[in-house]
Amino acid sequence: MAQTPEKKVKDAVTKILKHYNAYYFYPVMGGYGRSGIPDIIACYKGRFIAIECKAGKNTLTALQEAELKKIEEAKGYVLVVNEENIDFVDGALQTMEWIEQHNERNE
């Protein structure tokens, strides 16, 4: 069975999260779920990260935008990635690692 383009993006993000040993999960969408929830919820170095994966030129729905805004307002980190900017996930985790190391040296 062929992978969808979005599944390829999710797999690439998962590979990065595993590399950093980040905690992550895919929220189950079903009868009790809420529409607009990001594709991947992660935590790394004590930081909450919501990752919405898109394929190609696909854009966020209004519900997704609303959920991501709530996460940002709660001081969570939000990443919207596609095939062209998956490196943002790696860069964000590297930055979080650097901040933690820098804070430890200054304590």
Give a structural overview:
There is one protein chain. The protein has 107 residues and is of the alpha+beta class. Helices cover 43% and strands 19% of the residues. It is built from 3 helices and 4 strands. The longest helix has 19 residues. The chain is globular and about 45 Å long. It starts with a helix and ends with a helix. The model has no long low-confidence stretch (mean pLDDT 91).
Helix content: 40-55%
Give the helix tally: 3
**Helix/strand/pairing category:** alpha+beta
CATH architect. name: 3-Layer(aba) Sandwich
Number of strands: 4
Q: Overall pLDDT, averaged? A: 91
Compute the separation of the termini in Å.
52 Å
* Topology pattern, helix = H, strand = E: HEEEHEH
And the CATH topology? Trna Endonuclease, Chain: A, domain 1
Assign the CATH class: Alpha Beta
Q: How large, in whole angstroms, is the Cα Rg?
A: 15 Å
- Sheet of most strands: 4 strands, mixed
How many domains in all?
Answer: 1
Note the beta-strand portion. 15-25%
- Low-confidence runs (pLDDT<50, min 5 residues)? none
Query: Which word captures the global form?
Result: globular
Spatially, the strands of the biggest sheet line up as: 1-2-3-4
Briefly summarize what is shown.
With 107 residues, the chain is an alpha+beta fold. The protein has helices at residues 5-19, 62-73, 87-105; strands at residues 23-25, 40-44, 47-53, 77-81. The protein has 3 helices and 4 strands, in the order αβββαβα.
